[in-house]
Specification:
221 residues; alpha/beta; Glutaredoxin; seven-stranded mixed β-sheet; 7 strands; globular; disulfide bond; Thioredoxin-like_sf; Protein SCO1/2
Length: 221
């Protein structure tokens, strides 16, 4: 009888721990997310109503074209939370995994109009609209939810390095001739502020990103 009771207690403990892990996996790290203003990704813990945000770093204006031939600008993301990355369709290395994880985000927020995805081609000369469209169809990309964009190379590279700071972990000065290649996903809020950077190859990081997007949605309410 004593042995039977011990088995029951052990089973209950495992169930409780399992439930706790599931809850923690879906929870954000904090009640609110920090703001970031430069490539060092030093967190700034500011209230969303802080006056300091009026002059804080924001994603600037841009003008690109997506897989459907539609113009995509910063206004496309007005009052939207979005996740952005940089890739190219012929990439044999990290890009397929990044695209797979962006698909995870797409599935998580498929029916949520507040959340969009933005992937920039770093080989825009090769990645024409038709090439992006073919790629998008093969990857199950949902139009107007996930924009794969091409356009002026300098504009794309300036956005990556000076606006989103996606190469923050590579170090050293980059020139216009240097290839932009990074696995980072960047989270942008409805006011065009950077609120997080994540390893787009890491499943745990992607789950954390999902939780942080939900935190941002609560913050905006």
């Amino acid at each position: 009888m004593k042995k039977y009771n011990l088995i029951i207690i052990a089973l209950i403990t495992l169930i409780v721990l399992s439930c706790k892990e599931q809850v923690e996996e879906k929870s954000s790290r904090v009640d609110g997310l920090p703001y970031y203003s430069d490539a060092s990704f030093t967190p700034h813990w500011l209230d969303s109503k802080s006056e300091a945000l009026s002059t804080f770093h924001k994603i600037p204006k841009f003008n690109l074209t997506d897989q459907d031939g539609q113009e995509v600008t910063e206004k496309t993301f007005d009052n939207k939370i979005y996740v952005t990355d940089f890739f190219f369709t012929s990439c044999p290395g990290i890009c397929p995994k990044m695209t797979e994880n962006m698909s995870v985000l797409q599935d998580a927020f498929k029916d949520d109009a507040e959340v969009l995805l933005l992937s920039h081609s770093v080989t825009p000369v090769k990645d024409s609209v038709s090439t992006l469209k073919h790629y998008a169809e093969g990857k199950g990309v949902i139009s107007n939810k996930w924009h794969l964009v091409t356009g002026d190379r300098k504009q794309i590279y300036d956005l990556g390095r000076q606006a989103y700071f996606v190469e923050e972990d590579l170090g050293g000065e980059k020139t216009d001739d240097d290839f932009l290649h990074t696995e980072n996903f960047v989270l942008i809020d409805k006011d065009k502020h950077i609120r997080g950077i994540y390893n787009g190859l890491n499943k745990t990081a992607v789950q954390q990103l999902i939780a942080d997007i939900k935190t941002l949605e609560i913050e905006d309410k």
